[in-house]
Amino acid sequence: MQGQTDWIERWLLGPVRERLEQFPAVALLGPRQIGKTSLALELGRLMPSVYLDLEAAADRAKLADPALYLSALGDRLVILDEVQRMPELFAALRGLIDAGRRQGQRSGRFLLLGSASVELIRQASESLAGRIAYLELAGLSVLEVNRNHIETLWIRGGFPDSFLAASDQASALWRENFIRTYLERDVPQLGSRIPAETLRRFWVMLAHHQGSLLNAAELGRSLGVDGKTIARYLDLLVDLLLVRRLQPLHTNVAKRLVKSAKVFVRDSGLLHSLLGLDDRDAVYGHPVVGGSWEGFVVETLLSVAPERCGAWFYRTAAGAEMDLVLDLPSGQRWGVEVKRGLAPKLGKGFHQARVDLAPDRTFVVIPAEERYPLGDGVEAIGVAKLAGLLN
Questions:
Q1: Which residues pair with 135 in a beta bridge?
Q2: 13-136 has which CATH code?
Q3: How far apart are CA 388 and CA 355, in angstroms?
Q4: Does 250 have pLDDT greater than 90?
Q5: pLDDT for the residue numbered 119
Q6: Which pLDDT score is estimated for 118?
C-alpha cells in the first residue's frame, strides 16, 4: 500500500517497555497475526534478548528443562511466543523470577506473547500472581497510520497484512484465509470441539447483527442449539479476542435499563469478509455499514483508552441511548455517539441519555477529521482527533 512501510511503529511499544521496567514478566495478548511478534522483535532490537517460538519444535526442545535453559539467560529479556502452548512453563517461570529477585533482578525478565486471553491469564495468574502485568495489542489504530488512510483502515481492518496489502483483492484474500485457518487449525488446537463450519455460521450471524443487543435465543434457534451452547460459542470468540461484548451501564437512575450486552466483531476487516464485502463500494451498499462504522469507532477508542477506563453503552426501555460511555481514571465521564453522516442529527433518545448520565464531555464522532461545536456542550469530532484526546 502506498504511503506505508512493512513496519508500522506501534504506540504500545512504549507501554510494554514501561511495564518491563516495573514487572519481571509482561504478557502481551492479541489475536494471531495482529503484530505481537513484530512488536516483540522490535523491542528485542532495543535491548539484549532471546526469542523462542513455542510452536517450533526446536525451541520447545530447548525448554525440556526450562529452569536449566532459562537460568543461563538471566541478563537478557526472554521473549516466549505462543506461550499458552506450554502451560507447564509457568511454574518454572515463577521459580526463576523469585530466584532473580533474591539476586536483585526485579524486572524485565520475560515477555510472554499469547493469542487466547482468558486461558493465558488463568494460567499465568495461578503461577505468577504479583509478578506479571498484562497488555493487549489491538489492530492498527488511526494513531498509527496516515490520516489519509483511515477509511482504508476501516474497510480492510487493523491486521497489518490486510491493511498493507497491495490491493483490495489481496487484502480480502488474506482475510478469508485468516478466517479459514483460525477456524480449521487454531481453534481446535485450543481444545475446542466445535465444528469449524458451525463456528463460522455463528460468527457470520454475529456479523449480520453487528452492534446489536445479544439475543441468544434467536441465535440458538437459527443454529438449532440452546442458549447455553450459544454462550459457549460466544465465550470462545471473546476469549480469542475476535468478538467484543460491550456491557450495558447500570446507574442509579429510576429507569428500566437494557440488560443484554451489545456484540461486535472486533476487527472491521474480518466483519466485512464474513459478510462477503471485499471493498469500499460493497461495504457502503450493505445494511451493516452503520454498525460496522460504530464498531470501528468503539474498537479504535478502546484500543487507546487509558488503563482502568470503564467502557459501557447506555440504553433504556424508553429509548434513551448513548453508543459509548467512558469513565476515565481521572473521574471524568465522557459520552460518545457515533454517526455516519457529516451533518449528524441528534434525536430525543440522545438528549435524554445526556440528562440521565450527566457526562462531563459529550462527543459525536463523524467520518471526517474535523472538530466543531454542535451546541449545548456537544462536539462533533473525527475518530482520530478523539483517539488523540484519549491517548
A1: 28
A2: 3.40.50.300
A3: 26
A4: no
A5: 66
A6: 67
One-letter-per-residue 3-state SS of the chain:
CCCCCCCCCCCCHHHHHHHHHHCCEEEEECCCCCCHHHHHHHHHCCCCEEEEECCCHHHHHHCCCHHHHHHCCCCCEEEEECHHHCCCHHHHHHHHHHHHHHCCCCCCCEEEEECCHHHHHHHHHHHHCCCEEEEECCCCCCCCCCHHHHHHHHHHCCCHHHHCCCCHHHHHHHHHHHHHHHHHHHHHHCCCCCCHHHHHHHHHHHHHCCCEECCHHHHHHHHCCCHHHHHHHHHHHHHCCCEEEECECCCCCCCCECCCCEEEECCHHHHHHHCCCCCHHHHHCCCCHHHHHHHHHHHHHHHHCCCCCEEEEEEECCCCEEEEEEECCCCCEEEEEECCCCCCCCCHHHHHHHHHHCCCEEEEEECCCCEEEEECCEEEEEHHHHHHHHC
Distance CA 210, CA 220 (A): 17
Of the candidates 52, 104, 56, 55, the one whose C-alpha atom is nearest the C-alpha of residue 78 is 52
End-to-end Cα separation, the chain, in angstroms: 26
Residue extent(s) of CATH 3.40.50.300 domains in the chain:
13-136
pTM of the model: 0.92
